[in-house]
Specification:
- By secondary structure, the chain is of the alpha/beta class.
- It has a single domain (2-164), classed as 3-Layer(aba) Sandwich (Rossmann fold), CATH 3.40.50.
- Helix content is 41%, strand content 25%.
- The chain contains 6 helices and 8 strands, in the order βαβββααβαββαβα.
- Strands 1, 2, 3, 4, 5 and 6 form a 6-stranded mixed beta sheet that branches.
- A hairpin with a 2-residue loop joins strand 3 (48-56) and strand 4.
- Helix 1 crosses helix 6 (145-164).
- The protein is globular and about 50 Å long.
- The two termini are 12 Å apart.
């Protein structure tokens, strides 16, 4: 079974989460490609997908959301898992919080999972720093790679069941 793990990542935190998921799936014997969402040329090569994005202001990155929405017809007929990486509990006024849920519904994803991310204030641009100063979220790396590995294993278990059919 050929699996694509694709991520929309601005500073690399979400990409590292995707790489961890891909490594777990590879370790149990799946043929896995890991790519930035913007670099995916087509989905017809793959049997299953794990697609994730960094979340900014409640929205997925455009490259990841476009990968899902532009390929929704094909993805509806495949096994798809989605994940978001961001700072849980940090919301801006009027922020949309349902984009990932809408994308999951659009493609009939088996699961949508949220993981806490990392916030490195020094890597942000001036506009982002202004927003962060106003919101004052906790800074640091809050990614829980044990939880990410556990989720990856549950995805692998479901994939093995699908492959056995």
């Amino acid at each position: 079974m050929k699996i694509l793990v694709a991520t929309g990542s601005k500073y690399g935190s979400t990409r590292e989460v995707g790489e961890s998921i891909a490594a777990e799936l590879s370790a149990v014997g799946f043929d896995v490609d890991c790519a930035d969402a913007a670099d995916v040329q087509g989905v017809h090569f793959y049997d299953a997908f794990v697609i994730g994005s960094a979340v900014y202001g409640g929205l997925w990155r455009r490259d990841a959301s476009a990968l899902v929405s532009d390929n929704a017809e094909e993805l509806r007929h495949r096994d798809v898992w989605l994940f978001s990486v961001g700072m849980a509990g940090v919301k801006t006024p009027g922020q949309q919080t349902t984009e990932a849920t809408q994308l999951a519904s659009l493609v009939g994803a088996r699961e949508l999972r949220h993981f806490d991310g990392a916030l490195d204030y020094e890597r942000l641009n001036m506009g982002e720093k202004a927003i962060i100063r106003a919101l004052n979220p906790p800074k640091g790396d809050f990614r829980d790679f044990a939880a990410i590995r556990d989720w990856s294993q549950s995805v692998a278990t479901e994939l093995r069941a699908v492959a056995a059919l």
